[in-house]
Amino acid sequence: MTSVLRFDDVSLHRGTTQILSHVDWHVDEGQHWVLVGPNGAGKTTISRIAAARLFPSAGAVDILGERLGRVDVAELRPRIGLASAALAGRVLGGETALSVVLSASYGSIGVWREEYDDFDVERARALLTALDAGHLAERTWANLSSGERKRIELARALMPDPELLILDEPASGLDLAGREQLLAALAEILAAPGAPSMLLVTHHLEEIPVGFTHGLALRGGRTVAAGPLDAVLTGEVVTATFGLPLEITKDRGRYTARGA
Ligand SMILES: Nc1ncnc2c1ncn2[C@@H]1O[C@H](COP(=O)(O)OP(=O)(O)OP(=O)(O)O)[C@@H](O)[C@H]1O
Q: What does the pLDDT read at residue 114?
């Protein structure tokens, strides 16, 4: 099986703060992982390392067969799609939705001096249409709702046809209809032939789309459990992860958590 990600004994600290401690994590092709854990568990930190945006203090990280620290990240990053609030926060309000998506091919934000060929423009429009956002192509970022922006962010992350797609809380801030539409779109992308391996960061089990296969539960920068999703999203593991007695139910591929 081809390895997509490999974390071996990965730790990260900033000053005296230990953010990640001895994380071992292996993602193989064909797997789609959910990273769950409470606020401050280290989910975003792990996803930024997996996206080659951050280097660990100790341990080894292999991304798409390349060792972080030895590979030129400028060559690696275009193979990874990343949608996160941090990235979205860097978009200038005057950019159109289309230019936010298009500029992903160049790893930049917004159309600057690059020239795009017709193929890129067609692909960007097709992605927006597939995410039910075709009508938003010419709208400026400042005038989009948070739900509309989430769909543009996802189209942008998909634009370079990534081998690995990392979504950091893609459904946060969405209303119920927006969340359900986004989850349906993600389930569809995931089920399509040749879909990229996906990592989804969330603290809400209700925001996990159908089709995810594995889970990594984190608390305080340490692994609580890692493995097939049904083995990780149990009452016992989720209770230990969030530090509160919780019951989990699963219905037609979706999970719900409530206080026990
Ligand atoms: N540069 C830094 N210096 C000190 N502490 C940091 C730094 N970056 C992150 N942290 C801390 O590391 C911990 C993990 O942060 P991270 O953003 O990865 O958590 P998270 O699980 O994604 O949380 P949330 O669900 O709230 O987004 C937090 O306690 C955070 O305050």
A: 58
| Nearest in space to 51 (alpha carbons), one of 41, 66, 31 | 66
Token couple for 244: 């509160």
Hey, which bits of 94-213 come out as E strands?
Answer: 164-168, 197-202
What distance in angstroms lies between residue 39's CA and the mean position of ligand 1's atoms? 8
C-alpha pair distances (Å), 242 with each of 35, 203, 258: 13, 9, 12
- Number of other CB atoms surrounding residue 15 within 10 Å: 5
Which residues does ligand 1 sit against, CB inside 6 Å? 14, 17, 19, 37, 39-45, 203
Ramachandran bin of 137, using left for φ above 0, alpha for ψ from -120 to 50, beta for the remaining angles = alpha
CA of 115 to the centre of ligand 1 (A): 37
Distances (CA, A) of 178 to 124, 172, 234: 21, 10, 27
Q: Please name each of the domains of the chain with its CATH number.
A: 3-85+161-259 (3.40.50.300)
Task: Give the DSSP letter string of 211-253.
Answer: T--EEEEEETTEEEEEEEHHHHSSHHHHHHHHTS-EEEEEETT
182 and 229 in contact (C-beta within 8 Å)? Answer: no
**pLDDT of 110 strictly over 60:** no
Is the model's pLDDT at 169 over the cut of 60? yes
Point out the ligand 1 atom lying closest to the alpha carbon of residue 35.
21
Taking the model in full, what pTM does it have? 0.91
C-alpha to C-alpha distance for 203 and 172, rounded to whole angstroms:
10
Q: Complex ipTM, two decimals?
A: 0.95
Contacts of 133 (CB under 8 A, 6+ apart): 97, 148, 151, 152, 155
Give 35's strand partners. Answer: 201, 216
